Amino acid sequence: MTRQPGYRRLLWGGSLLYVLLLGGTGILVHLLSVSPEGRPDILLIFAVAACINVAALVILFAVLHRLIFRPLYLLNQGVEIVAGVNSAYEFDLPRHHLLGNLPKAVENLSTAFLKAKREMAEALAAGAGEMEDRKTQLETVLNSLREGVIVCDDRARILFYNSAVRRLFYDNEALGLGRSLYLLCARDPVENSLAILRQRKIRNEEMTEEEKGVRFVCTTIKEGALLHCHIRMLPVMPARPWSFVFTCEDVSHQVDILGRRDNRLRSLVSKMRAPLTNLSVSAEGLNLYPGLAAETRSKFEQIIVQETHILIEHFDRLAHEIQEMVSAQYADSDVFAGDLVACVAKKLKSQGVQLTMTGDPLWVYADSVSLLLLLEFLALKIRDYCGAGTIEIQTLLGDKRVYFDYCWQGSAIPQSELQRWLSELTGPAGFTVSEVLERHGSDIWSNPHAISGYAILRLPVPSSPNQWGTPEPVLPERPVYHDFAVLEPAADVLTEQALDRLTFIVFDTETTGLSPLDGDEIVSLAGVKVFKGGIIVGEIFDKMVNPCRTIPRESVRFHGITEEMVKDKPKIGEVLRSFHSYVGNAVLVGHNAAFDMRFIRMKEQEAGVRFRNPVLDTLSLSLYLHDHTPEHSLDAIAQRLGVEIRGRHTARGDSLITAEIFLRLLYLLMERGITTLGKAMEVSRR
Fold it and tell me: What b/e string do you get for 617-633 counting C-beta neighbours within 10 Å, with b at 16 or more?
């Protein structure tokens, strides 16, 4: 498993050669001796001399090893760590050695190196400050977009995406840098659009702005949601023939609503045909035969009345559907009633009206701009008509509506006065009150309050689904993930690929115990993506698992996962399928990876997936690189390489720590000439 340093092999080989030469010389002298009687004495002399020489060599070797060679070897290992991964590493040398001031000089050199490195980092940070600010501004803008934005190369591999993409594709585990766009959405619509763009490019190198884009509709792979998409070619990038930007927006809800409304409208129109036909026949009969008998005429008139009522009912429903369709065209959104009232109160304060809100604020679904103007308009009209300088607004929930109740001391406003308000403008360039009310399917009325001497004016507004919904999960702080030099090779040639060009998934599990053969199960599985020398923090896989068995107390004390925490979580089959999509063709990395892979492989059949990815073990790599120490636990390696320990004994925390360790080990491997995956796997098996 460990390697013998070169000086040990040299000393052992020299000692063995010396013993052979000494023995050979003794035998030769013995054979050439003239006096047979003297041969035993000669052999004895040579044997004693050989023993003394061998003992002297052993002692000399032990002294040299303890005082010179091992301190030199440890010093060399320390310099390698300082120069490569941990500038603050403290040299671990024996107390007694014959290296003189060399260790002190090396320590001074490492201190100077650390200082220079920090000064350089500070200088680079200062110089890159403006660039980082611009990058942050760009990320903020991209994060505010509701549309998903993905940049792909000519083979539809993802080079960049913003946070909206994660939401649109329902956090599909296959989403990631270097992964194919076709793992997220249907292939045919995208390829057909790309074919059109390629043909346009061939036909006309200087395409117009309109020719550079294609709009189409496709579905997502995971949920089957309908996306409205747009593909646009980008200018040629260095070392890349061409690339494209793919923007998309989920229109499933809108299409579903429009489809249902279309069916309802068709049904209503169809239902109106029969009453119209009966009305037409009855009216023509009365017109053509004025001398009809009274009984026959009465039947015709009754038909006309009945069918008229039916038509009126259908017409009202049709008008309501059309009103909803018209309203849907406006910029309605979820708005917090408290925010609306606070804005209105601030504007009214300068106009001598004190507006306060009582009760619990609720969510409404409305055109916030026009509703804001209407709320202000009504408060001012109440002041002007009733002389009320102090008004309260209370929001009440009922019948899928939120009621804005204005309350003031005084009398109610007559309906005739309210009717006159309907034609007035809510603002200098706004809509009329009637138009705003129609847009929201609403009306206004005024009644005396239950408290004597007070009155109310009620304005109903559509309620928002947020009233009962749960908030969306918070996205990571850095919402934009990109790398414009993606290269993800096929699995069968991974061993020949350079380590710094591969994608790695560093993973860890937490379990109910240590023996899967005795029924222990996975309770947590996490993975961290490492790509081109960095951790992609926005692509972390972290799921708890229902083990369908009890979790021993000693295991709970170790990882903190209780049965209550996992009782509603998915089973291992579902989690492994998601993890398989997340991993793709990447190389798996773990600390003592054989332990975790044993649990995973035992559940492959249940999950219906197979993990045949190459596996690297940070434990084996540490044994190869640092055979001078017996300490190769995760904590010991982290301390040696300068990795901060956070979130220990959780699958996510241990994955992040292992990923940081792996990046440093990767650097040390490449410094020793181990630059491909095949070589790294070879040395890890030694």
Answer: bbbbbbbbbbbeeeebe
